[in-house]
């Protein structure tokens, strides 16, 4: 396969949750070629990567100790990754609105929320936080009372998405 075919295959096998960039795939192919595991050839103006005998032997000898990055009995991983991307996109939109508000108090509060979110994620990865917490607003109890409504985004109880012109 050529690099873009490899990138498309990875994207397809992971349901779009792992998109490899050219900046990652081509240096990896060069390294594998330097190590003698793949051979690069030109065909139709494209460089094709093919496993060498040494590459095939290396895979056969070691694959039992490698985890399969595409394995999964169901689509829960892919769906979870898509859900995270969607949540991150929503969060990015809320942060963008806070930045546009021009209110330094909003930006400093949002920065505090983001810092705590980062800490919370690392605590989850370290196994220090139970998977389900009853309070969706975070560990510090931040909620609509301090200007952030987790359900509706940045704004107040009236459903607004930021300060109106009189507050700027």
Spans with pLDDT under 50 lasting ≥5 residues?
A: 134-168
Instruction: Compute the separation of the termini in Å.
Output: 56 Å
Main sheet record: 2 strands, antiparallel
| Strand ordering within the main sheet | 1-2
- What is the alpha-carbon Rg in Å? 23 Å
**Number of DSSP strand runs:** 4
The H-and-E topology, N to C, reads as: HHEEHHHEE
The structure class reads mainly alpha
The proportion of strand residues reads: 5-15%
Query: Given the structure, what is the number of helices?
Result: 5
Mean pLDDT: 77
Instruction: Choose one word for the global shape.
Output: elongated
Helix content: 40-55%
Tags for this entry?
two-stranded antiparallel sheet, 4 strands, 168 residues, elongated, mainly alpha, 10% strand
What does the model show?
The protein is mainly α. It contains five helices and four strands, in the order H-H-E-E-H-H-H-E-E. A hairpin with a 3-residue loop joins strand 3 and strand 4. Helix 1 (3-13) packs across helix 2 (22-34). It starts with a helix and ends in a 14-residue tail after the last strand. The relative contact order is 0.08.
């Amino acid at each position: 396969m050529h690099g873009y075919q490899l990138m498309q295959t990875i994207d397809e096998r992971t349901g779009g949750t792992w998109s490899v960039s050219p900046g990652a795939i081509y240096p990896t192919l060069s390294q594998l070629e330097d190590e003698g595991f793949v051979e690069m050839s030109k065909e139709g103006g494209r460089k094709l990567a093919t496993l060498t005998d040494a590459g095939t032997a290396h895979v056969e000898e070691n694959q039992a100790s490698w985890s399969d990055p595409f394995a999964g009995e169901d689509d829960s991983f892919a769906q979870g990754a898509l859900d995270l991307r969607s949540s991150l996109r929503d969060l990015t939109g809320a942060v963008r609105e806070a930045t546009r508000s021009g209110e330094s108090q909003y930006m400093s509060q949002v920065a505090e929320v983001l810092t705590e979110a980062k800490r919370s994620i690392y605590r989850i990865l370290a196994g220090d936080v139970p998977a389900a917490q009853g309070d969706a607003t975070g560990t510090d109890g931040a909620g609509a009372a301090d200007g952030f409504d987790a359900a509706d985004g940045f704004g107040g109880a009236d459903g607004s998405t930021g300060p109106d012109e009189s507050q700027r």
